[in-house]
Amino acid sequence: MNRHAAAAIAALGLAVGNAVAQRPRDTTHITRPDSARATGALEGVIVRAVRANGTAPMAQTTVDSRTVQRRSFAQEIPLMLQGTTPSLTAHAESGTNWGYSYMRLRGIDQSRINLSIDGIPLNDPEDQVFYFANLADLSASVQSVQVQRGVGTTGTGTASFAGSVNFETKPVFGVRRFAAAEMQAGSFGAQRVMLEANTGLLRAGFASSVRLSALRTNSPRNHAGVRGISGLAQVGWLGTRDLVKLMLLAGRLRDTLSYLAVPEADLRRDRAINPLSPDELDAFSQNLVALSHTRQLGTGVQYATTLYRIGANGNYDVRFDSATVGNYGLDFSWYGVTSAMNVRRGVLGLSTGVNANIYSRDHAEYFKPDLVNTSYLNTGHKRDVSAFTKVSLVRGPITYFADLQVRHAVFRYTPDSAGGFGSVEPSISWTFINPKVGATWAVFPSTNVFASIGRTTREPTRSDLLAGNDNVSRATLDDLGGLRRVEPERVTSTETGVRWRGADVQLELNVFRMDFRNEIARIGALSSLGAELRSNVGASVRQGVELDLRWRPSPSLTLTTVGSLSHNRIRSYVDSSGTSPVVRRNVPPLLTPSVTATQRADWRATRWLDLGVEARYQGQSHLRNDGDRALTLPSFVVLDALLRVPFRSNDVSVRATNLGNSMRYGSGYAVDGVPNYFILPPRSVFVTVRLATR
Questions:
Q1: Rounded to an integer, what distance in angstroms lies between the CA atom of residue 214 and that of residue 234?
Q2: Is the peptide bond before 275 cis (omega within 30 degrees of 0)?
Q3: pLDDT tens digits, 169-220
Q4: Among 255, 401, 482, 667, which is disulfide-ready with 226 (CB 3.0 to 4.6 Å)?
Q5: Is 66 helix (H, G, I), strand (E, B) or coil?
Q6: In angstroms, rounded to a whole number, what is the distance separating the alpha carbons of residues 350 and 346?
Q7: Measured between alpha carbons, how far is 610 from 95 in angstroms, rounded to an integer?
Q8: DSSP labels, 403-434
Q9: Short-list 376, 383, 328, CA closest to 360
Q10: Parallel, antiparallel, or unpaired: how do β-strands 163-169 and 113-117 relate?
Q11: Rounded CA separation 589/625 (Å)
């Protein structure tokens, strides 16, 4: 994944899945407070479209609003989610809780995880990445999060390969009028202010909400500070059978870069080392706007359409030597439309929809101090059209499920005028058919057994096609073999499990197997711009068992255990990262720990005191796909704690992270046979005060 070659890109889309809302009888009924469930059902159609329901035959975890509120202190989303779902790991480059952070599912990197917010895709079409750093304090606008592991159900945007993560924003409708403010201070000079408000449903059927945040922090790594602002505004109108909503999400990030890891020997002397210089800066902004319309056509029939436009721009520095600093600019625009219809008739559920979008992004290189004349300027274009159909059928205690997506994507490269291409614009296209089938058996009212199998194929990214280069000449592209240097990758995912929902116990235990062909994986080398190079590694497999257990031994105490055990192997591939090709056989894939475990205890001690403690363990993993035991990421344990004092609508929270001050590492890579690491955030404390009025 190219960590810093693009601004974080958010795209808006809409797809309606199997969801049913009761048709309101009249406008008066809708505007009453007791109709919050009806209005929420209509507003939530988009989210339910891309999410799996609780009985779907998919491995899934939904993080509810209470858990989000308890865990969040505006840290990056991947760091907030770690410990909530099996097989999810995360790290931040800065060594603190802000800055560029990334998650992995079952050891598979974030560029192959489908990300969406309210059903709106977030993955950039060119490089399929998303940088949460550009949307500071996003969790303050999040109502819930669903994480699907494995191929999951069809969503919007890039194909779900390792899994999907869907965010649901706080609702506009069904909420009473309120205003709130949060002030936060903590370790490493962390400061944050957040303001939010909702008008509630007005007499004319209108409602609106807004959230504004600003934060800044230094870092335990030298000159790795972060400055970020963001906002989310929504305004909607609710009629008898219609809902129209306009959403605007915008953010801006400024930081000093820290995307390079450090050799362990150097970290033993000084954990604050940052190989990048203080004048290597990063500034990106993004904004997206979406206008959506949902209509209740009849009982059990809903139709939805959204139009979206996204724009973003920014630049980052790369110092080549003491006298040369390159500045790389990115500017993109993205237009799209999504339409879908959902039908529920007795035991049959049907959802069908289409999505089409056009995207282009300019790539430019300058050399400071000249930020006017470019060294090169090229443009990547991406067009994507997809259609899906989902069907569910209930037969006695068994619910059958089928999902089929057909997707066609085209990438076209407009080269720099000095690249030797003449009037030629290289292009490549792909067509994919992604099927999924499964069934859930209600053995008892509280117990379900499920099984599913699905296949997903996805195209390589621009960075994969161009071997990490931001600009290529015709000669270079010919040496790479054209745009077919990396072939599409495919995974077949099998999920089998059991869910038990008792009065005081909730359990999900699933066994998975993921068989890959032509998996696109990191080869342990970096491009001249610091991008991690990847190539196809042939056949590989990830298989294991995952546990998600919640037990309430008393009304005030909840104990949670989340964990995974897995066996992961690349069967055979040709490693070309060295001076001569080497055949690797039966080696573990990098950054894929075979053991992860989290134990959490949440105790509402009194009406005025809320306590929590969480211990997370991540087992050892490899830094290269070669099985070299000298090049590993050591196992680690971190301990976090929460003390919260609520009073009326207000509260004061004290959060402590890494109480044991573990000196291990969150992630890393190997260069020339030497392990390089990103440090874990050291022991830190954050105090948040929330004041609210209704």
A1: 19
A2: no
A3: 898 988 899 999 999 999 999 999 999 999 999 989 999 999 999 999 999 9
A4: 255
A5: helix
A6: 11
A7: 28
A8: EEEEEEEEEEEE--TTSS-TT---EEEEEEEE
A9: 383
A10: parallel
A11: 5
Closest CA relative to residue 440, chosen from 388, 514, 495, 389: 495
Q: Would you list the DSSP string of 279-334?
A: T-EEEEEEEEEEEEEEEEEETTEEEEEEEEEEEEEEEEEEEEETTEEEEEEEEEEE
Q: Looking at this protein, which amino acid is placed at residue 191?
A: Q
What's the whole-model pTM score? Answer: 0.91
Q: What is residue 629's three-state secondary structure?
A: coil
- Please state, as a whole number, how many other Cβ atoms lie within 10 Å of the Cβ of residue 278: 12
Paired tokens of 542: 């990830």
Of the candidates 93, 60, 305, the one whose C-alpha atom is nearest the C-alpha of residue 160 is 60
The first and second tokens of residue 186, run together, are 């903590």
Three-state helix/strand/coil letters over 174-208: CCCCEEEEEEEEEHHHEEEEEEEEECCCCCCCEEE
Please, which residues have CB within 8 angstroms of residue 445's CB and are 6 or more apart in sequence?
none
Residue with tokens 């990334």: 102
Which string of DSSP letters, residue by residue, matches 80-106?
A: HHTTSSTTEEEEETTSSSSSSEEEEET
Q: Count CB-CB contacts under 10 A for residue 674.
A: 14
- Could you give the CA distance from residue 694 to residue 689 in angstroms, rounded to a whole number? 17
DSSP state of 134: G
CATH superfamily for domain 27-693: TonB-dependent receptor, beta-barrel domain (2.40.170.20)
Among 334, 246, 335, which Cα is nearest to 293's? 246
Whether the Cβ atoms of residue 118 and residue 234 lie closer than 8 Å to each other: no
The type of residue at 580 is S
Indicate the burial class of 316 (C-beta count within 10 angstroms; 0-12, 13-18, 19 or more).
buried
Length of the chain: 694
Rounded Cα gap, residues 310 and 122, in angstroms: 11
Q: Phi/psi of residue 231, each to 5°? A: -155, 150
The two tokens of residue 328 are 């790389």
Cα 150–chain centre separation: 14
- Residue ranges per domain, the chain? 27-693
- Helix spans in 397-531 (H): 462-465, 474-479
Looking at the DSSP bridge assignments, the partners of residue 689 are 183, 652
Q: How far apart are CA 686 and CA 609, in angstroms?
A: 17
